[in-house]
Design brief:
TIM Barrel; 12 helices; binds flavin mononucleotide; alpha/beta; OxRdtase_FMN_N; eight-stranded parallel beta barrel; two-stranded antiparallel sheet; oxidoreductase activity; FMN binding; Aldolase_TIM; single chain; globular; NADH:flavin oxidoreductase/NADH oxidase N-terminal domain-containing protein
Length: 390
């Protein structure tokens, strides 16, 4: 019977100190030309020094076309890789492991964003369909997502862009890559029949809608010499950025996708429960309703978590230490991603070890994405807990 702090092996290729993973969190603080600097080095190294099993970087855009924040990092040139190498070195020096999260926002990018204008890029998506959501803090009037969306001509060109970014990630010293395939961003747009109306082999049937993600996984597998260093983050019941689909489509799509990912021996599959009554409470419109009590982690998770499975099941969204520990002990999940606790606690592992409750946000929401005077503000100024008797 394992618990949260027991070690675990991923993809028969590397061992993690424990099963607690710092989730990917955009913090909008890469003020030096979309590269990490001293603030990011300290932030990630502090959490690695505390003993975090695995860190997933904040979402890193693979291309200027996919950006929807002004100060998020990108992985496009050797210069970006060199900047991240300083972060991965600092994490490795204290015994940590770190994956790059590969992100393309697709139709959630905005053509009015200064970053899009500066690089003269179009907003790209599987089909030219606007997402009914969005709010751009940096843009006057806080508009929603743009209607100025262009259908991707050949999805293989975007897969090539992922391949390029992940090649740089390897050069930057990342131990692997987490593919962001939730949140209504590009990879999930391909899955969703409301966002993807393509008539070619990337649209229509379930097999076709899953093709983009599976071919991207195959491309990353080649770079990292095996699928064990790949994690894919999915959120079947998601609603963010107009990502909702009906229950039947959700079940059919994700059953096929997960089975194919396990067949490919993907190292970790992160299943989020956002949008369910067990995660965020949400009044979903009737056509997208989910049966009361439905939990995608427990239902679809069975496709990942079985004796002899090559893939590890990682759960996410609104878990407590107690619930995560219970599910690991019961053999229902292998690992947990905590997101927000890692913002307010540089010492998540120490707190778990000593039974100290996590600190919560007692400041304002500016903590998340700014504004800030210097990037360290609300980022590297959260105190560790005093441990009695130590
Ligand atoms: C400030 C903030 C930024 C986030 N940015 C990302 C991101 O870049 N990529 C991603 O996949 N998820 C992102 N998330 C979602 C988290 O990774 C995680 O899935 C979510 O917070 C739920 O986990 P929790 O309940 O433990 O916080 C972000 C969440 C927060 C609070």
């Amino acid at each position: 019977m394992s618990n949260l702090l027991d070690p675990i092996t991923i993809g028969a290729r590397f061992d993690l100190r424990n099963r607690v993973v710092m989730g990917s969190m955009t913090r909008n603080r890469c003020v030096d030309d979309n590269k990490p600097g001293p603030a990011q080095i300290k932030h990630y190294a502090d959490r690695a020094k505390d003993g975090t099993g695995l860190i997933v970087s904040e979402g890193i855009f693979i291309d200027w076309t996919g950006c929807d924040w002004q100060y998020t990092p990108v992985m496009i040139t050797d210069d970006h890789a060199a900047a991240w190498k300083r972060v991965t070195d600092a994490v490795h020096e204290v015994g940590g492991k770190i994956f790059m999260q590969a992100w393309h926002a697709g139709r959630c990018a905005h053509d009015e964003m200064p970053i899009a204008k500066e690089h003269s890029v179009q907003v790209l998506a599987p089909s030219a369909i606007k997402a009914n959501a969005g709010e751009y803090h940096d843009l006057p009037g806080r508009p929603g997502h743009t209607a100025n969306v262009h259908a991707i001509e050949d999805p293989k060109t975007i897969i090539e862009t992922y391949r390029h970014a992940c090649t740089l990630a390897k050069r930057a010293g990342f131990d692997g890559v987490e593919l962001l395939a939730q949140g209504g961003y590009l990879a999930q747009q391909f899955l969703n029949s409301r966002a993807n109306k393509r008539k070619d082999s990337y649209g229509g049937t379930v097999e076709n809608r899953c093709r983009f993600i599976l071919e991207t996984i195959d491309a990353i597998t080649k770079i990292f010499e095996g699928p064990g260093a790949i994690c894919v983050k999915i959120s079947p019941t998601d609603y963010l950025n107009d990502s909702m689909v009906g229950f039947d489509e959700m079940k059919e799509t994700y059953t096929y996708l997960i089975n194919e990912m396990v067949k490919r021996r993907v190292g970790i599959i992160t299943l989020c429960r956002r949008g369910t009554s067990t995660g965020d409470l949400l009044n979903r419109p009737k056509e997208f309703s989910i049966p009361e009590g439905y939990d995608p982690v427990l239902d679809l998770g069975k496709l990942v978590k079985f004796p002899g499975s090559p893939s590890r099941l990682m759960a996410n969204n609104d878990y407590t230490v107690g619930e995560a520990n219970r599910l690991i002990k019961e053999g229902k999940i292998d690992m947990i991603t905590f997101g927000r606790p890692f913002i307010y606690n540089p010492d998540v592992i120490h707190r778990i070890r000593h039974g100290i409750p996590f600190a919560v946000n007692n400041r304002t929401n500016a903590v998340l994405y700014g504004p800030y005077k210097i990037p360290d503000e609300n980022y590297n100024d959260w105190p560790a807990a005093a441990i009695l008797g130590v």
